[in-house]
Amino acid sequence: MSQIATVSLRDLVDAVDFVSLSDITEFRAYICTKTGTIYYISDDPKLNQDNPGDLEESEQYISVPSKRDLDLGRNVVNDFVDRELPDEWDTVRDFFQRRGAYRRFKDFLERRGLLEKWHRFEEQSAEEAVRAWWVDNEIPLSEP
Question: Strand pairing of 7-8 and 141-142?
Answer without folding.
Answer: parallel
